[in-house]
Amino acid sequence: LTDDEDEIIIEIAEVLGSFGGLVGGPLYALTLIKPLEILACSEESAVREKAIESLKKIISISKIKEKEAEVMDLLKRLGNNPDTFTGKIAAISLIPICYASLSTIGQQDATNMFRAFSKDETMQVRKAAAMHLKYLVPLIPKFPESEYINIVQQFIKDEQEAIRCQCIDNLLALCQVVPYQKSGSYILNFIKACAEDKAWRVRFMLTEKIVEIGKYLDHDAIIHYLANYFTNFLQDTESEVRTIAATKVSEFCKLLDATSIVKKIIPAIKKLSTDTNANIKKGLAENLLQISPLIGGASSSEHIVPIFLSLLKDDDPEIRLPLLSNLEDLNKAIGIETLSQSLVPAITQLAGEKKWRVRLSIIEVFPALAKIMGEGPFTEHFGAMSMTWLDDNVHAIRDAATKNIQKLALLLGPKWTEKNVLPKLMAYQTHENYLFRMVPLFAIPSLASCLSPESIEKVIVPFLVILASDKVPNVRLNTAKCIKAIQPYAKSSTLQTLIAKTLAQLAADPDSDVRYYSSEHPIS
Fold it and tell me: For residues 88 and 147, what is the distance between their CA atoms, to the nearest angstrom?
């Protein structure tokens, strides 16, 4: 059976699990365990994993109470295989599947076997036991709670950090099943051991699950123990731990009261905001403003806003963008007036940055700013700025600015667009640089739906008629595209006649590309 190619053996190991119905159903499914037992002891992990999964399927559909002796014999053979430790790994995987259906004596034997596996001299066997221990928690009290706790305590002291890392999932599983009032002292001891572990990966794993664990603790335990550990993680010597802590900070703060957040978490966040690691600051930027509603306006103004403004000056757009994208949370806490006082100077400074990527990142959050601030305050502080980017020397900025005003037009409506956008676009008609004369040609097609029929007739179409005679072929070409795009919005027959006349003029243009796009060809 094991002499064939690995791919074939893997396939055999997988399909045997579906053969239960073919050999007579639940009463006879265990006849399949012999070939699967051989494959479950394979040195090849892919074969072993498929065989174990198939054994789980076979055992789960079998009448274990009637076939208990066969199941226990299988576990003992796997656990006592002298040739390889892989049999023990297979037995560990199967015990949680069959445990609940075993007799009291069978459960005692299975418990003893699992305890022995957890103390095995082979690291891989102990690791497998650590990985599967959490599946025994739902079986408490059939699986003795004291036994579970003793095994976890043993794993926490194991010399291998890979095994200690598994204790976090076992701890969480215990919290989910056993009430904290009953197991609180054990849980706090487990948390303390993991939080103070010398291996950073163990601390990392605890930090990753700390919010989930915290949901099962009482308020005093969170405030006096968990918050202190989390504060330490925010200041951990290992950057990976600080990074994961930064990404969890807003969710963890939801477990705390406002006073505890300000007293314990905020000082650590202030230090974290000056960290040299970009990933840490990015994680903090994604979570910082979500703390504001939790601590209120006064505390947010005092503590969050200064950190926000500091991070907003960072050169990395991936740090600035999350801050601006989450402004709504800060707005809820301090209000638009206070927000504007803090934000306007910072945004204005960043908008004038020499680095074009910085300007680009600011442009991309203007629609969100407009939504938060409303038409009046936004127009007062940032309306003119939105238009000035259309004059930027960098094409990417002009392109982003064009898309920006399209979004603003949809958000703020026709009246705002006609008052604040159209005059600026029409002014490009006489610009000496043809690249800038094309700016409105890229914007108008998307703005057309936000404009009144009167603006289409009296402003847009006359503007396009003039550009149809531009001296630069590329301008005339894009004028033809623009005319076709706005044609459906020209309601009157007079206007349609003027458009048709202009397209006919362009269709006779000396430039072949202009003629092509002025004809019946689709816009591209």
Answer: 19
Question: Which tokens belong to 121?
Answer: 């001299």
87 vs 94: CA distance, rounded Å: 11
- Tokens 């394979």 map to which residue? 42
Q: What angle do CA 59, 123, 201 make, to 5 degrees?
A: 105
Tell me if residue 430 falls in helix, strand or coil.
Answer: helix
Scanning the structure block, which residue is given the tokens 């969100």? 368
The token pair that represents 399 in the structure block:
């392109």
- Distance, in Å, from the CA atom of 156 to the CA atom of 406, rounded to the nearest integer, reads 58
Distance CA 127, CA 160 (A): 9
What distance in Å separates the CA atoms of residue 452 and residue 409, rounded to the nearest whole number? 12
Residue 311 in tokens = 């991070």
Main-chain phi, psi angles of 236, to 5 degrees: -60, 150
Question: pLDDT by residue (tens digit) across 389-414?
Answer: 888 888 898 888 888 998 999 899 88
Angle between helices 305-312 and 278-287 (to 10 degrees): 130
Please state at what angle helix 145-156 crosses helix 123-132, rounded to 10 degrees. Answer: 130
Residue whose token pair is 């999964």: 53
List of residues 6+ apart from 199 with CB closer than 8 A: 161, 164, 165
Geometric angle at alpha carbon 91, from 88 and 96, rounded to 5°: 140
Which amino acid, residue 156? I
Q: Find tokens 């948390």 and name the residue.
A: 191
Token pair of 333, please? 């806490």
Among the listed residues 48, 44, 50, 102, the one whose alpha carbon sits nearest the alpha carbon of residue 76: 102
50-101 tens-digit pLDDT: 989 998 888 888 888 888 899 999 999 999 988 789 999 999 999 999 999 9
pTM for this predicted structure? 0.74
For residue 91, give the nearest of 129, 134, 65, 43 by alpha carbon: 129
Which tokens in the block code for residue 502?
């202009």
* E strand map for 164-250: none
DSSP conformational letter for 197: -
Q: Which two tokens stand for residue 208?
A: 């990753």
Q: Which two tokens stand for residue 221?
A: 């335990």
Distance of alpha carbon 504 from alpha carbon 279, whole angstroms: 57
User: At a CB cut-off of 8 Å and minimum separation 6, what does 136 contact?
Assistant: 95, 96, 99, 114, 143, 148
Q: For residues 16 and 24, what is the distance between their CA atoms, to the nearest angstrom?
A: 14
Side chain identity, residue 167: C
Q: Within 13 Å, how many C-alpha atoms sit on residue 101's CB side? A: 18
Sequence-separated (6 or more) residues with CB below 8 Å from residue 8: none
DSSP alpha helix (H) spans, 389-507 = 395-412, 414-420, 422-426, 434-437, 439-447, 453-455, 461-467, 473-486, 493-507
Distances, alpha carbon 308 to alpha carbons 273, 320, 376, 452, in Å: 9, 9, 24, 40
Residue type, 263: K
Residues 418-461: pLDDT tens digits?
999 999 999 999 899 999 999 999 999 988 888 888 899 899 99
